[in-house]
Amino acid sequence: MIGTLLSGRFRLEERVGSGGMSTVYRAFDETLERWVAIKILQTEIAEDDDQLERFRREARTVARLNHPHVVTVIDAGEDQGLPYIVFEYISGETLKDRIRRFGRLPVPEALAYGIEISRALEAAHAEKLVHRDVKPQNVLLDTDGRAKVTDFGIARSLEGEGGLTLAGRVLGTTDYVSPEQALGQEVTPQSDIYSLGIVLYEMLTGDVPFRADAPVAVAMKHVREPLPDVQSARPEVSANTAAIVDNATAKETRNRYSTVEQMRGDLEGALALEASRAGATSGEATTVLRALPEDGFRVPWRLRFPRRAAALTALLGVLVAVALILLLSRTHESPPPSKEPSQPKGAPALVALKLPQTAAHDYDPIGGDGEHHADTAKAIDRNVVTAWTTETYDSGIPQTKPGVGLYVDTGDPVAARKVDIISRQSTYKAQVLAATGPEPPPDISGWTPVSGTFTVSGTSHVPIDTKGKSYQLYLVWITELPAQGQGGINELTISR
User: Fold this and answer.
1) For the chain, how far is it from start to end, CA to CA, in angstroms?
2) Architecture category of domain 93-156+173-301 in CATH
3) The whole model's pTM is what?
4) Catalytic residue (one of 133, 175, 266, 381)
5) Gap between the Cα atoms of 397 and 478, Å rounded
6) Does domain 357-495 have CATH number 2.60.120.260?
7) Which of 17, 90, 240, 252 has the smallest set of CB atoms within 10 Å of its CB?
8) Is residue 48 annotated as a catalytic residue, yes or no?
């Protein structure tokens, strides 16, 4: 095939890949004078009407997706009985190649690629398309390091288009196949989420989670065996990142992320956290960090704009040097300083309380039906992915009731000085109240206010004034919640 001119326009120059149904060539577009990639259906497969229809469907499928992280379809056609699809040519390597070269990837880099792949899948799912073969071999990395998803050859529409499968086999690569896909059950966007979770696991650990002598045996491990703990394979992975892998790869779809948007949001939060912990990023992680919304993620400015930060640091160094020179010259000329009384020392440094998982309790004095009491421990589990939430109130608060909340039992009375709240739920207003304990007051009048009213959105730092008194119970009392909204706490920290 090398040297063949397709449709009088595309000259095949090099074979770059092949599979069970098609072969991919690097080709030169003699009309527009540019390099392209051409996928040609194998002759014996082209004679099968079902396989020919699947191939044509791929062209129609990807042509509908216009996204920076999806390989673009340029053209499609047929020449002397050979159906072909023309794609943009990505000069780089696959994500699988990168994992083979480096083993496990830096955690921020793995999260960044996970975000870019999830964005591509969001675009596909918005068009009612499931990829069904998400794997690092189908993720191309261009020369700038950006990830692009390709090979929608077995993608399936969710809008009633009949699914085509090869007789006697499940479509999809078994190393990344979802349990429902391995069992031949209905494939949904959550199947892509599972496969992306396995890809994330491989990027973090350098290897796929399951191995066996036969592909079918690997598929059955996805169905029956628990996923190996990613933190055991790589201890420096944070609990947040490990939770994302766990949520994406849950065996039962009801326990899995319901949408790829949810997974992408947690990946972005984890990237912001990992970058802040590391203090520096490189490559694609820096690019993705810059694109995160500034009002939604607490990413240090120096990480969003490293070149500007470096220039500013250099300028600051010059200014400090000049200031030191001037100060030393003035010190040399000035008389010895008089003895002034020392300034009073400031308050001692804040210390976060270590709370057991049983310390958090929901508080609902009006109605008494509780506020998701089974989830209260999630507010203090040091995992910002999980959360305790209120019920959803049709009319909001205070229209439905004066308020609801969550309190923490510190065990021993303490004079708290600050409460930190991280919340990804609806914006709401709250106040911190306190009580001596050990039992909570039966109604809100029995609590003592120790803060003013504040708005909770993202991360909130609330100063506490107990007027020197120690309390055992501290309550976040939600006083205003929008209609059809849920208040909640992803993480609560009390400091004294």
Assistant:
1) 74
2) Orthogonal Bundle (1.10)
3) 0.59
4) 133
5) 8
6) yes
7) 252
8) no
